[in-house]
Amino acid sequence: MTQRLNPFATAAHLMKPLIDFGMTVVQSGLESSLMELVKIRASQINGCAICLHMHTQEARKKGETEERLHLLNAWRESPLYTERERAALGWTDALTRLSETHAPDEAYEAMAAQFSEEEQVKLTLLIVVINGFNRIGVGFRLSHPVHADRSAA
């Protein structure tokens, strides 16, 4: 995979508002661990390696377990996630796959049962932001750091 261009260097003045918006959403008051799970889940669906690299590292720093990170792609089948996390992950899946799901009522109702109205907006904006960054990362083929001892032979 060859990087196409670095939008953060090429158009920093256009990327900065997205970064600032992302920081505002992240500082809005949702649980940090939940936000990292949402960012990782959307990045899994979208296949964004740079975002997966960044957010799994951040989740680990914040105390997330390897087991929960490894099983996140199968969150529906694992008992490791709380009802609130499940609701957020279901809403993440629905909005990230919007053209397929059309945000079904079941996903919204599960999320609304766990999140206040303001939290629903915060969560939805978080999903919007990470999907935006995923599209930039995948579209421009942004690469994550690779350590020689961890790369494939």
Description:
Helices cover 68% and strands 0% of the residues. The protein is mainly α and 153 residues long. Helix 2 runs antiparallel to helix 9 (117-139), helix 3 (32-46) runs parallel beside helix 6 and helix 6 (83-96) packs across helix 9. It is globular, with a radius of gyration of 16 Å.
Key terms:
mainly alpha; 153 residues; globular; 68% helix; 9 helices
How many distinct beta strands? 0
Q: Determine the fraction of residues in helical runs and give it as a percent range.
A: 55-70%
Number of helices: 9
Task: Provide the structure class.
Answer: mainly alpha
The ordered string of helix (H) and strand (E) elements is: HHHHHHHHH
Biggest sheet character: none
- What is the overall pLDDT average? 95
Instruction: Report the uncertain regions.
Output: none
| CA gyration radius, whole angstroms | 16 Å
What share of residues are in beta strands? under 5%
Judging from the principal axes of the Cα atoms, what is the shape?
globular
> What is the straight-line distance between the termini?
16 Å
Protein topology:
Layout: H1 7-10, H2 12-26, H3 32-46, H4 49-61, H5 66-71, H6 83-96, H7 98-101, H8 105-114, H9 117-139
Helix pairs in contact: 2-9, 3-4, 3-6, 3-9, 6-8, 6-9
